[in-house]
Amino acid sequence: MSPQTLVLDLGGVLFHFDHPHRLQRMADTFALPADRLDELLWRSGFGADCDTGTYPYTADIRDRIRAATGFTGSDDDLDTAWCSAFRPDHAFRQMLERHRGSRQLALFTNNGPLEQEVLLRLYPLMFDCFDHLLFSHRLGHRKPALPAFDAAAKQLGARPEDILFIDDSVTNTDAARAAGWTALHFQGRETLEQALRSRSR
């Protein structure tokens, strides 16, 4: 029996992910150097804290970004810049529809409440095929921590051996296997399409 639940990463799989592009977009919007923004918002640990639910409210996250950077512009400009690393891969989304079969479909991503709110608002059609949206801020753990995989499986109501997990990070796919999941390192749509066909139910 092939895995009955298909679990995908967001950045690097469902969406193209480009952090340097985000830093440049934020530099243009916030009028601060890209490296300084990276230091203030990511290398400081703030982004990871958002991912694990330390700041559960989007308004609080926006306030903290403003306090750290001095940004006084609109929420829309802040939101767009913050999430500009993500660009939807519509061809991947269409391929999923063709090959998911009867599998339960879930998204499992290291992201916080601001990304969840903004990306679902900007790109609703990229998410409407999913049965579950597992954002790490709701699980309290980030991949590759094993408790993140345990919490995700519990949310899915699935046994580890019934899950096929697809992520562009080898570290994350190794951790998924350690949790008992079947895992595939994502290297492009063609590889994934072949794997899904071979595991079709």
Salient structural properties:
alpha/beta; 201 residues; 11 helices; globular; 2 domains
Q: Give the SSE string.
A: EEHHHHHEHEHEHHEHEH
CATH topology of the largest domain: Rossmann fold
For the record, give the distance between the C-alpha atoms at the N and C termini, rounded to a whole number.
Answer: 8 Å
Give the number of domains: 2
Rg over CA atoms: 17 Å
Query: How are the strands of the biggest sheet laid out side by side?
Result: 5-4-1-6-7
CATH class of the largest domain: Alpha Beta
Record the SSE blueprint:
Elements lengths: L4 E4 L6 E3 L1 H12 L3 H10 L2 H6 L6 H12 L5 H8 L3 E3 L1 H10 L4 E6 L3 H10 L9 E4 H4 L6 H11 L6 E5 L2 H9 L3 E4 L3 H10 L3
Parallel strand pairs: 1-4, 1-6, 4-5, 6-7
Antiparallel strand pairs: 2-3
Helix pairs in contact: 1-2, 1-5, 6-11
Short structural summary:
This protein has helices spanning 19-30, 34-43, 46-51, 58-69, 75-82, 90-99, 113-122, 136-139, 146-156, 170-178, 189-198; strands at residues 5-8, 15-17, 86-88, 104-109, 132-135, 163-167, 182-185. With 201 residues, it is an alpha/beta fold.
